[in-house]
Amino acid sequence: MSTAQREWYDSYLMPNYAPAPMIPVRGSGSRMWDQEGREYIDFAGGIAVNALGHAHPDLVAALTDQAGRLWHTANILATEPALNLARQLVELTFAEKVFFCNSGAEANEAALKLARRYAFDHHGKQKDRILAFDNAFHGRTLFTVTAGGQANYREGFGPLPGAIEHLPFNDTKALNEAFADDVCAVIVEPVQGEGGVIAADKTFLQAIRRLCDEHHALMILDEVQTGVGRVGTLYAYQAFDVVPDILTTGKGLGGGFPVAAALSKADVAESLKVGTHGSTWGGNPMGCAVASTVLDIVSSEAVLKGVSERRQRFEKALRTLGDKYGLFGEIRGMGLLIGCVLNEPWQGKARDLMHAAQEEGVFVLIAGASVLRMAPSLIIPEEDIAEGLERLERAIACFCESEKA
Ligand SMILES: *Cc1c(COP(=O)(O)O)cnc(C)c1O
């Protein structure tokens, strides 16, 4: 076989993504190398997925060990890795029951279906309204993209699932006004990731909790991006002092292997009776074996504390950079989910800045047109942070210079 080339992408793949011109072939920790052997620092972390960086030896061992034993059985048989992971998730969180699937969208799809079904079982089919928020992101299936708060992601895909309403994020007054007994669920991210790295106000999440209780609605917390240590607690709800009815987790859970889950209390889970929902690969032994190892490592106090320390380091350096070049003002988000909000003259240019960073050898993300986002490994070494920030500064200097010209 000949060596794969970037041009093949445009020939053979559907054009819904626009990947960088280079092709990475290897990663180790927070560094990656492309086909030419050029090295990059990874502040993108596969979009908040590579929680322990690339090729973490414990994850490689968990995966290869399981790969030599049993790959797949489907859910007609229980497997040891799925049982272990479910038990671990229950022990580490508020949850009593777990549903496994393969992606964040599927976890949210399961959560939304479960909420509708729970309302149907307990209150009747008129209780079907779902409240969601502007700029939210919950995935790309038709149900989850409809719950998401970006109209352009739904455009042209109708007819869409009904009885889903969007309210302004962090607006308790609007929430109060929209709530009624026909609401079956509220779905919300503790920190809007794709929507611009905006943390919910604690009082806002607590108001959702209170209104859900008053109206017998379920609170679904989408922790696909914020979960698994990303914000400095194992799950973000633990930092907000709010316990949801259903929580979804994906992205970092498998540290790069596709595995996701919806978690709930036992009484809620009762509504997913035999045959009501399913997934062929959900609970795949390899994904579960890797996820168990990820949770073992990330749930340790040292790793979680390290997230907060790294946050401080990033924030301090980014503030200095932002001030020096007048490029960004606000640094927002929580833990190692970091958003740098571009100042007025550079608004709409986050993508150009991301490309400039790539050229200097550091991967970053964007969240909308005017926010530079970073979601590095939770255990990124000190020297990689320093080196990555140096490269980012070079990119910023070039970028600011060329924008002036
Ligand atoms: C990424 C993301 C999803 C979708 O996850 P996929 O694995 O891409 O389906 C859902 N919710 C949030 C908050 C996300 O960040």
Topology overview:
Blueprint: H1 7-12, E1 24-28, E2 31-34, E3 39-42, H2 45-48, H3 57-67, H4 80-92, E4 97-101, H5 104-123, E5 129-133, H6 142-147, E6 164-167, H7 172-178, E7 183-188, E8 191-192, E9 198-199, H8 202-214, E10 218-222, H9 237-240, E11 246-249, E12 260-264, H10 266-269, H11 285-298, H12 301-325, E13 328-334, E14 337-342, H13 350-359, E15 362-363, E16 365-366, E17 371-374, H14 382-404
Parallel strand pairs: 3-15, 5-6, 5-7, 7-10, 10-11
Antiparallel strand pairs: 1-2, 2-3, 4-12, 8-9, 11-12, 13-14, 14-17, 16-17
Helix pairs in contact: 3-11, 4-11, 12-14, 13-14
The chain binds pyridoxal-5'-phosphate.
Could you please describe the fold and organization of this structure?
- This protein is α/β, with parallel strands linked by helices and 405 residues long.
- The chain folds into 2 domains: 7-55 and 301-404, Alpha-Beta Complex (Aspartate Aminotransferase, domain 1), CATH 3.90.1150; 58-298, Aspartate Aminotransferase, domain 2 (3-Layer(aba) Sandwich), CATH 3.40.640.
- Helices cover 40% and strands 18% of the residues.
- The protein contains 14 helices and 17 strands.
- The longest helix is centred in the last third of the chain and has 25 residues, at 301-325.
- The structure holds pyridoxal-5'-phosphate.
- Pyridoxal-5'-phosphate binds next to helix 5.
